[in-house]
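Cast an eye over this sequence plus tokens and explain the fold to me:
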Amino acid sequence: MMEKRRWRASQGGMEPGKVHKLTVNLEFGGVRVERFTFEDFQALVDSAIGRVLGTSAPTYAVCSFDGHAMRGALLADGADLHILWAALSVYGMHFEQPMAFHLYSVHKQRQIE
């Protein structure tokens, strides 16, 4: 009988069923954008994921944004991080301005009991 495969961190994947935080840096065509807010970041992420994945996008939540560092984060199931990152990484224009998301970090979130 085949043994059921179990997730291991050494396999390089994200743990399915666990919430992970994906943190990204944001860059706009090599220029500094002033007054970019949490709401702007949330709209940008929603636009990128919606445009690339449409209605097949997995559930996620934008949880933070630092306008000074141009760094934001979203929360999602570990099994969905790859598809969300793929959508963000191919989205290259926003309001006719070149932009890019750069991967900063991925962390498993602790469960609140």
About this structure: The chain has two helices and five strands. Residues 4-12 have pLDDT under 50 and may be disordered.
